[in-house]
Amino acid sequence: MTNMSKSHFSKDFLWGGALSACQAEGAYDVDGKSLTIPEVMKFNEKNDRKVTKQIRVNWEMIEEARNDPNAANYPKRRGIDFYHRFREDIALFAEMGFKVFRYSIAWARVFPGGDDATPNEKALQFYDQVIDECLKYGMEPLITISHFDTPIVLMDKFGGWYNRKLVDLYVKYCEVLFNRYKGKVKYWVTFNEINMSVKASAKTLGIIDYDAPNYEEMLFQGLHHQFVAASRATRLAHEIDPSNKIGSMVAYFTTYPYTCKPEDALQMQQDDQMKNQFYLDVLNKGEYPYYSKTYFKNKGIHLHIEDGDLEGIRSHTADFVGMSYYNSMISSSDTEQLELTAGNVHSVYKNPHLPANEWGWQIDPIGLRYTLNLVYDRYQKPVFILENSSGFYDTLNEDGTVNDPYRIDFLSKHIEQMGLAIADGVEVLGYTMWGPIDMISSGTSEMSKRYGFIYVDQDDYGKGTLKRIRKDSFYWYQNVIRTNGAEL
Length: 488
Known about the structure:
This is Amygdalase. This protein has 15 helices and 14 strands. It is of the alpha/beta class. It has a single domain (about 15-480), classed as Alpha-Beta Barrel (TIM Barrel), CATH 3.20.20.80. The strands form four sheets. Strands 1-2-3-4-5-7-11-12 form an eight-stranded parallel β-barrel, surrounded by four helices. A two-stranded parallel sheet has the order 6-8. The radius of gyration is 21 Å and the shape is globular.
């Protein structure tokens, strides 16, 4: 355990954890909910862990899933049954001392028909209970409005975010949430990891026209619609409750040049621009940056931008910069000598100076401090670490315990670097580590890839009692929160 001479964290620092509805909730057809993209994705036991391969969701896959009578083939339909066990799980988070709990609301529950005249009251009553349970323990609910779970009905009826109609439907959805939870929810995130849109277009944008000659243009058009929707939602949130804090969010792909060659440094700069900064520039600076315009010109991408779009984006920027941080990558002008390894959503080139987890994701704690300084310097807005962790294989011992020193080691080193970034002068609002309780993997739909402080007795095929078991890391994180980061 690392003992810091003093805590770098403010007394009101928000310690907690984050889950998503589509990985934890289950109850995929309960109380009127309609299908989402994650619920048509099967578990692939032959998954190649050396590289990251995005599953190309297509209409054939969707139709097969709709007609498949065996729901067990689709792990995210069962999740970890958070829908029925949320009180037990939130009580465990409270036992650890959580100050904040990040969770997502499923659009397909609230508006199961996509363009329903009124919201599904049963869905809202469920989220009422989740939010009230958090508040009961003095825990801030942090709500992600859209988290990788595009309702398929929005693809059926409108073709996903390529259709501008989704802007109005999203804002209507937001209005319901902002009014319903006024005075209860202060922190909101408009879109989870919005920069994943060009790598995971099905679950982020609902655009699966892969063979279209203008496919990339379709993605950026859909993304423009999300930028417009985020700006309108931000304006609405502030109008309904001026105390609301609305966050942008990217999965930050921290990048280093492979060598000190100027060509590698230039490639790193260009990668950072279009993988990370572009999205944050629009949402936090309120404008399309010059380099994105050059990218569109070189690619022959022409966006349809309506009157008022850019003014709205400029006038209603995010209140804080949210980001997930899992692994870093390297850039080079000559990649022939480099080796690919798996990473968050897409493969990255392996950094020879870094270790990796069992899935090939490289472990880079210092990169978190580097990234926090980079982001804070660029945007001058508070930063919120909304996801950070690593998947590991855990073993349940015969005595019912789980020893996970590797998780403690990973998180303690990252939290230490976060503290050092705060000491550097970076304003960090809070830290919601990813997956405080084991749940279904977003990318591979497996259960074996575990992130949690709490073990869930369920295997990759849905077998098990679903019993919740505290791991060693549970007590470690409890102490981290109790000492406000002074003991790691």
